[in-house]
Amino acid sequence: MDRLCVIYFAFLSWMMSGTESRLLPSAIDRIMGSLETKAITQTRFCDKLNGLTQLQKEWCHKYTPFVPAIGMGANLALKECRKAFQYERWNCTMDDSSFQHVSSFQSKETAFVDAIVSAGVMMAISRTCSRGKLTKYCGCDKSVLDEETTEEEFEWGGCGDNFLKGQQYSQQFLDLAAKDLPAPSETTTETVAGTPQSSVVEEYHKWNNRRGRLAVADNLATVCKCHGLCGDCTVKICWKEVRSVQIGEVLKESYREAKQVRLAHPLSPALVPANVENNAIAASAPNPILTTNALVYVKESPDFCVANGTIGVAGTARRRCKENSKASDGCELLCCGNGYFETRAVKREQCECKFVWCCEVKCQWCHKVYRYFHCKMPRPQVA
Fold it and tell me: pTM for this one?
């Protein structure tokens, strides 16, 4: 199973076990309070998170108070992923029995998960720092205090989300997983375009992790608050906040631009497009795709049309689609040409509402028919 996705599910299952209330700030405070008072020993707590590498367990022992934030970031990533792919053939299927297989492909979909988890963890840690609960490690963002303001008259202040610390700690934790990939054996070395696969996969994970962090850093919001008598804005104080509303969309665009890659040279960490010839690359050349916003992948995606339990693909049968859409949510594309069927639902709703003087709105009750379309089962293959 892909190491990063094992980690993802380890934290996600821990954070979501029991009830959703464990994700609320008050619950996070209780968890962190237990850690601080040693009610939960750091060693026992970290060792219970199955799927961590040895390096990550060491990191967990050192930075245990960050663990709830990592879990919150993973949960945020799951929601953003499902939102971004709700009308795609792969709709961000996220459970141990299915996604763990897809994750082993190092495909575009796995690349997106790497990036969105990295972004979610960075955002959660940044916000946790600004809440003043981790003063031993971080606090409010102070980096903007050294920046000059624009023509608008305001002062930097407040308690901004500490995105620099969020970037630092999320990178440390997630990149440790890629660093701890098993080395290929001399007799069973699998290669991709002539390069040992473990080397390619390590750089692949690091690249996509970095892309997720950059998406957060590039989409910081400036939030301001006015201070003055009677509502006047005598003094305007502004700070930076991380925002999640656009991260899924930004990374979805990177997913569309994803490039298949390999290492430029066996001893070089630089990634290059898989279709670039070796003799066209200088050994000392900088990474030719480093300046792009694309995600990278190693292997082509599997066919998500037909359910295949062996590789963890759920298929598109019975998925809801839009009859007349030409986009990915359209029945023709989403159903992979297998056809679709219609279902109808009758709902009782208020209708023909009128304003009656004075001052009331009166409505009648109507029955409205809604039409829904779903993908058919794939046709049996003829032997």
Answer: 0.77
